[in-house]
Design goal:
Number of strands: 5
Shape: flat
Helix content: 40-55%
Largest sheet: 5 strands, antiparallel
Strand content: 5-15%
Oligomer: single chain
Number of domains: 3
Low-confidence stretches: none
Radius of gyration: 26 Å
Structural class: alpha+beta
Mean pLDDT: 76
Length: 214
């Protein structure tokens, strides 16, 4: 075997190894990033909550010989989840639900606070709860005749803006939490009734990288 063939075989092996390396990254990167985010959040809560509890209830959580607040791994995370579940359960009760509604109205009518409170509340309710807005995925034509974007109908009409036969469509950006709101004629919109809203959102946010599961 001459030198050129040896070099060619060597290059093929390197190329194959490189392909294996890339394939390994594709498999491990999503898993590693997901685990890292979860552990970081886990540790962050575990670092903050014990110090907070020690400040409020110094007799419940003491300090070790080094003067640091004693920590129980996972306790902060469990307490946060338990607290959120408790609030969710209490808010479903009639009397507590009425109190939450009163507090909700107070916050929504307090100058300065209402902007932040209403924005966060509406944004969360758009994704979950009884007022979900991003549940109607569509294709919307806003750039050119045969160019389409994936969006979500947030209002079935635009009568408040004196635009008859128009709908309000929110188009999220890929790899970002931002997006654009379009008010377009109804004939510029095609309903995506064969895929779920979650799949449409995932497809859009990842720039079309993921496969759509019908």
């Amino acid at each position: 075997m001459n030198k050129s063939k040896l070099n060619e075989a060597y290059k093929k092996q390197l190329k194959k190894l490189f392909q294996y390396f890339i394939q390994g990254l594709i498999v491990l990167a999503p898993i590693g990033i997901t685990v890292w985010v979860i552990l970081s959040l886990f540790n962050l809560i575990d670092d903050i909550l014990p110090n907070l509890l020690h400040t409020i209830f110094p007799n419940w959580i003491g300090k070790n010989v080094n003067g640091d607040v004693e920590k129980t791994t996972g306790l902060g995370f469990v307490l946060i989840i338990a607290f959120v579940l408790l609030v969710g359960w209490l808010s479903s009760l009639f009397m507590v639900g009425r109190l939450v509604q009163v507090l909700d109205k107070v916050l929504e009518n307090t100058p300065g606070i209402k902007v932040i409170y209403s924005s966060v509340k509406d944004f969360l309710e758009a994704f979950a709860g009884n007022k979900k807005k991003f549940d109607k995925p569509v294709l919307v034509n806003v750039d050119a005749a045969d160019v389409w974007r994936i969006g979500f109908i947030t209002r079935p009409d635009a009568d408040e803006l004196d635009l008859k036969e128009h709908v309000v469509v929110y188009v999220p950006h890929s790899y970002a939490i931002s997006g654009i709101t379009y008010i377009v004629p109804k004939d510029k919109v095609k309903l995506l009734d064969k895929i779920s809203a979650a799949e449409a959102m995932k497809f859009t946010l990842t720039g079309g990288v993921v496969e759509i599961e019908e």
